[in-house]
User: Fold this.
Amino acid sequence: METYDDRSRPLGITIIAAILGISAILALLVLILGLNRVSTLGLGAGMTSATSLALLGALLLGCFEVALAWGLWTLRPWAYWTTAIIEAIRVIFGLSVVFVLREALVAGILSLIIPIIILIYLFADRNVRAAFRTSRT
Assistant:
């Protein structure tokens, strides 16, 4: 029977997982350093509840991205579909930026490029889909 270790990881998935993992770890480090700076300067008392919730959301998102990178790296089927859903949401968000915020047209178009490439790669390459299929043992 085929296990997770028996399958080879496609190069594109390796790249996506590595970039996602590095990005998430850097974001978490910046968040931790930022919170440390806020507490060192005594600015924490002036933080609003909205700011605290935003920081908590950023922390949870960073942890989620680390888990997603691990899932892609280890070829977990849930990571394939979660990545597809997240990239589809990023495409929708990028389209909303293009059509709603006309002054940010270039940024909106640029924000569409990577999610579209990832979605095409996930669904067009037969080897990628096969790598995430499992036969449970």
Summary: The mean pLDDT is 80.
